[in-house]
Amino acid sequence: MNSPSIFNEQMVLDVMRQVIDPEIGCNVVDLGLVYGITIAGAKVTLQMTLTTPGCPMSESIAQGAQWALLGIEGVEEAEVQLVWDPPWHPSMMTETGRAATGMR
What is the pTM (predicted TM-score) of this model? Predict the structure, then answer.
């Protein structure tokens, strides 16, 4: 029998704030790059995008996201899905992201 998850979506978002887009210098949550989180038992699936489809750091950012997810207590499997629809736009950033990037 599976035990209930000891982590939740907010914990996932908090950990994803440690993942920084190195070209912009802001975390992926405040940049508005996280599109969805699915928790199924001990597995987390994260849907995220990048600021541009040709982002040269895409593999590095996705790998960093996966490592961050696997660092959450109770997570045994983490999948990061890069998606491009809808396309990212600066309006998706949080106020914190806008402040960090100077896009107020």
Answer: 0.90
